[in-house]
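Project standup — Tuesday

K.O.: blocked on the structure for the chain from last sprint. Re-posting the sequence here as requested.
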Amino acid sequence: MPNDFHLYRQDRRLHWGQIAARLRAQPEALAIPLANIERWLARGRLQPAPLLEWQRRILLAQASRAEFNKLLSYLEADNDDAEPLKSCSPFVGFEGVQS
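H.V.: unblocked you, prediction finished:
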């Protein structure tokens, strides 16, 4: 079906690059995925490991410029190793943040 929106899904590298660019402009926006993680964990997520890993990385990024840059590099990475964690993204609602 030519009008199927699944055929027009945004390029994943572009998607993650936009998130990284937003963070560069507005590092305080890391509060959004952290709030999502807290909310989802409070609801009793069956598989919390990916969320806990995101939480760990984001908290490190907030504490250290080197870790912040490491997180940005991870977000922009275009490799299969990064994709499993990225499939459980806590950046829902992040797109609405203005830079």
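K.O.: great, moving the ticket to review. Helices lie at 12-25, 31-42, 49-63, 65-76, 83-86. The chain has one domain: 8-92.
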